[in-house]
Structures are given as C-alpha cells and as structure tokens.
Amino acid sequence: MNVLVTGANGQLGNSIRKIAAGYPAFHFFFTDIPEVDITDSVSVEELVRANCIEAIINCAAYTAVDKAEDDVEKCRRLNALGAGNIAACAKSISARLIHISTDYVFNGEGDRPYTEDDITAPIGIYGQTKRDGELAVLENNPSSFLIRTAWLYGRHGNNFVHTMLRLMNERDEVKVVNDQR
After folding, report:
1. In this structure, are strands 145-149 and 96-102 parallel, antiparallel, or unpaired?
2. Could you please report the per-residue DSSP string of 69-106?
C-alpha cells in the first residue's frame, strides 16, 4: 500500500518516518514544503496520482499558535484550504485519509474530557482555522478520519517535555499552568 505523509518535516511526520521502516507492507512517501504545496490542489493531485497513493496521513499544518494571530492568511491557507484540498484529492482517487487536528477547536472551558460530538467553539485564529480545516475535510471527503490531539510528545521537535527539561536545567524553579485538563 502506498501511503503519503504530508507535513513530514514536523514533529509527528518525523516520528512516522522513523517507525515507517517497521512496516514493509507499506511504501511511504514523505513530503513537506517545498516538494508539494497543499494549498495548490493541482500540486496535491499530481503528487498523489504520480505515486498511486492509497492512503494519506495529513500532518501538515500551521502550528505556531501565537504567531497565527498575526499571520492569519497563511494559517488559514495551510490549516483550512490545504486540508480541504487533500481531502478532495483523497476522495477523487478513493484513498483513505487520516487528518490530524487539535483540541484548540474547543474553547477550553469544559469540565470533562471532550468527545467527538461536543460543539466546537475555537477562541483564536489557530483553533478557528483547524476547525475550518476539519469542516473542509468532512465536506470534501466524509469518510475521512479526524484525530484531535492536545499535545504531541516525542524524541524530536519542540514539545512540552523538551521545554520542561530545558527549563529545569536553566532555572531553580519552573512554573506551569495547572488549570487545564
């Protein structure tokens, strides 16, 4: 099976790349900017058709949450338009799609873990564009799988665990929020 992984240079894409060798029945194609521009539907279609892709894992996203407030158009193009393009392409060739999203599609005011049926209510540009991406994915390819995650942890990349380890080496005391579930 030929599997395309978009956003392959990000934390999740890199992690998938590292474990892919353990799955010889799958032939993985890893891509990121500049190899393919997911905001260009023709570019996505050409890549997918040229490689006979049968499944797509969309890890591509604009993930700089704070910067998104100042870079709205780029964030919207990657998180909403790009996700929709990938979903439409997957549907056109009957490929399975796994789209990675975030808990930022919610407002964070819940007092219990969210479920897939909870109403989305993003409060920032990043969350709004990821929610719009989810809607575009489901509109263009209703059989897609959406995965929402709160944090990514891994050996590589900028993540909470690495930040805490670095801060513990730099400071006598580290303060973090304790009001999030």
Report:
1. parallel
2. TT-HHHHHIIIIIIHHHHHHHHHHTT-EEEEEEEGGGS
C-beta of residue 11 within 8 angstroms of C-beta of residue 152: yes
Return d(Cα 50, Cα 16) in angstroms, integer: 22
Q: Which of 23, 104, 114, 126 is catalytic?
A: 126
Strand, coil or helix: what is 32?
coil
Domain ranges of the chain: 2-154
pTM of the complete model: 0.90
Q: Could you confirm whether 104 is annotated as catalytic?
A: no
What are the tens digits of pLDDT across the range 36-61? Answer: 999 999 999 999 999 999 999 999 99
Q: What is the Cα–Cα distance from 24 to 181, expressed in whole angstroms?
A: 38
68, two tokens? 């998104």
* DSSP state at residue 146: E
Per CATH, domain 2-154 is 3.40.50.720? yes
Q: Token digits for 62?
A: 């604009």
